[in-house]
Predict the structure.
Amino acid sequence: MIDRYRDLEEIFQRDELLVSKDRYGGYQLIRGTLAAYATAGSFCVLCDARRPDLMEKWYAVMRAVRCADLRCRLKLLTWQELASVLPAELQAFLEVKYGINP
């Protein structure tokens, strides 16, 4: 299905994308990147630092982006990084609810 997306060939070096059994790894990450390109915007992935598999998948998608300008608009932020600048009450909530510590 992803092969039908507009600008796929222009944005990505397809042989660099993760593919397994004719399925792209990081499908939503690829879609988000294409949306950032189409809107001339940015795309930030917010994830848990305890998910190194997701972070590695995101970096693999980023590496496949041809345009350096777009690549600079792609970001990764972990909940743990974000938690470090949140008010203490919200930090406590994240720790109790999700086990997220700054």
User: Anything to note?
Assistant: The beta strands are 19-20, 23-24, 43-47, 74-78. The chain has a mean pLDDT of 93.
